[in-house]
Specification:
168 residues; alpha+beta; Cyclic Phosphodiesterase, Chain: A; four-stranded antiparallel beta sheet; Cyclic_Pdiesterase; 2H_phosphoesterase_YjcG-like; 2'-5' RNA ligase
């Protein structure tokens, strides 16, 4: 993405994500396939299942500072036990997702990242947070939202996994 106001004139989107276990990933991929069979192609259909902790848009010359800041925080954290459970939705943006039972350790990690000097110093318009940890099945479903909700009406799911690394 080109931005003439930046030093290098190029900005990039950077994500810090937790990758769930293979088993949980496979469940999410099966749910996406089920939804795809019902409504066809939709946003997020083919993305890798993940839980976003941080999403920032910054000048690519700041990448090194961002990564150093995140490495310091992550190095101090312990593995986090998480539980994927049920199908939920964000009606405001027409998103269907697998819920994640938030733990104190996840909440602490998220707060530490958002309070870090580098991230907290970024303008608000350059950062977004995933306040509700989740695994997206489908987003921006608009006209298909009701069908998507009905597709998983009777679905029950719960599985725990260890988050022992983050990807950025």
């Amino acid at each position: 993405m080109y931005n003439p106001k930046c030093i290098n004139a190029y900005v990039a989107v950077y994500l810090l994500v937790i990758s769930p276990s293979s088993s949980v990933k496979n469940v999410v991929l099966r749910l996406r396939a089920k939804l795809g069979n019902k409504i066809g192609i939709y946003p997020a259909r083919y993305s890798q299942p993940h839980i976003t902790i941080l999403s920032v848009v910054i000048d690519d010359s700041l990448e090194h500072k961002l990564f150093n800041s995140l490495r310091k925080i992550i190095a101090q954290e312990s593995p986090i036990s998480m539980t994927a459970h049920g199908i939920e939705c964000f009606p405001s943006n027409k998103t269907i997702y697998v819920g994640i039972r938030e733990t104190n350790l996840f909440s602490t990690l998220s707060k530490n990242i958002w309070r870090s000097p580098f991230v907290s110093g970024l303008p608000k318009e350059f950062k977004t947070s995933s306040y509700v940890p989740h695994l997206t099945i489908g987003r921006s479903l608009n006209y298909n939202f009701d069908s998507a909700q009905n597709c998983f009406k009777e679905y029950s799911y719960e599985e725990s996994f260890m988050a022992d690394s983050a990807l950025y």
